[in-house]
Design goal:
Layout: E1 2-5, E2 8-11, H1 17-31, H2 45-55, H3 61-79, E3 86-90, H4 98-109, E4 112-118, H5 123-133, E5 137-143, H6 146-155, E6 161-165, H7 175-188, E7 194-200, H8 205-212, H9 218-234, E8 243-250, E9 255-262, E10 266-270, E11 273-277, E12 282-289, H10 293-302, E13 305-312, E14 318-325
Parallel strand pairs: 2-5, 3-4, 3-6, 4-5, 6-7
Antiparallel strand pairs: 1-2, 7-14, 8-9, 9-12, 10-11, 13-14
Helix pairs in contact: 2-9, 3-4, 6-7
């Protein structure tokens, strides 16, 4: 455990292991027949900064919709929580929207303990910024994957917990993986705990694609940064100019699919492996599944969770779902 500042401590249980994990995933993903890169690695420090810019784009409605719901329903959510409830957040990023929840929880119960979980090294900086704003806040963070970090954060205290999984991050997982992940969350939860989950709702392709392929090219910069990261951190030999950002909507699967497309045939070296790409070949970098209201209930039930309350933004594009253990 590290204690870099008063009221701030955080765990880095796999210190030194992140680079080797990234290297293995990059080598395996690019050198195989069906090429992909794990979306976890989109969020290094620069990737997280670019994503913050994406959140303010006119096309990217998700952050505005979720923020609207939190501003309107935050007090209601906080008042429904048991006393001394702590907040555990999966994929905290800059914690911008989390401030709304923290403030409402403080109004309802006084001092709050917050446990952000993120693979990004930006976790400490974001935590320090929160502590400068809130004298009533204590932070116990974990720099780790969601599953491992949740177990560690949850076991670090015995107070009830609100587990927040915001930003429609559940949409990055395929159906079976989403169910498996939520079963893991449910297995950690105690009777008084709750899960607050952001879910993007299915809508016409004309509304979805621009949110992931904006006119200013910021999402393209975000996607291509993954290749820059492979070069800078792993010694890759990728000519990033030979790739472009590519987005499609798969209506049958109700998901946005984000790719890097090779502009020409090429051969690259990655972490001791050699990858050959044809002109036009796609490298999958992220899925973003969209849900119907019925699909949300089915997903929760399959994971051993019960939907207690659902809130929507004014345009009904997005849902914030409060779940308990069934």
């Amino acid at each position: 455990m590290r204690r870099p500042a008063p009221r701030l401590e955080y765990y880095v249980p796999h210190n030194g292991g992140a680079a080797s994990d990234f290297a293995e995933c990059a080598r395996r993903g690019l050198c195989g027949p069906k090429k992909s890169l794990d979306p976890r690695f989109l969020y290094d420090e620069r990737g997280s900064e670019i994503f913050e810019r994406i959140c303010s784009l006119p096309e990217y409605y998700l952050t505005r919709a979720e923020t609207e719901i939190l501003e309107r329903a935050g007090a209601e959510i906080a008042s429904a929580l048991p006393p001394r409830c702590r907040l555990i957040e999966l994929g905290s990023g800059s914690s911008a929207k989390t401030r709304i929840l923290l403030e409402r929880m403080n109004e309802a119960q006084g001092d709050v303990t917050y446990s952000p979980i993120d693979v990004s090294r930006a976790l400490e900086g974001a935590s320090r910024a929160l502590l400068e704003s809130y004298e009533w806040l204590r932070i116990v963070g974990v720099e780790d994957t969601y599953e491992s970090g949740l177990r560690l954060a949850h076991s670090s205290g015995d107070a009830p917990a609100l587990i927040a999984f915001l930003g429609s991050s559940i949409g990055n997982l395929t159906g079976s993986c989403a169910r498996s992940f939520l079963r893991t969350v449910a297995s950690v939860m105690r009777a008084e705990d709750a899960l607050l989950m952001g879910v993007d709702l299915d809508k016409p392709e004309s509304a979805l694609v621009p949110a992931y392929d904006d006119a200013a090219g910021v999402t393209a910069e975000f996607n291509l940064n993954l290749l820059h990261r492979i070069n800078s951190e792993l010694g890759g030999s990728i000519d990033v100019s030979k790739f472009e950002h590519h987005v499609v909507y798969n209506a049958g699967e109700r998901r946005i699919e984000m790719y890097l497309r090779a502009l020409e045939g090429q051969e690259i070296e990655v972490c001791g492996g050699r990858a050959e790409l044809r002109r036009g070949e796609l490298v999958l970098t992220e899925y973003s599944h969209k849900y119907t209201p019925e699909g949300i209930g089915d997903l929760a039930a399959a994971a051993g969770l019960r939907v207690e309350r659902t809130w929507h933004d004014s345009a009904r594009r997005y849902a914030l779902v409060l779940c308990s253990r069934a």
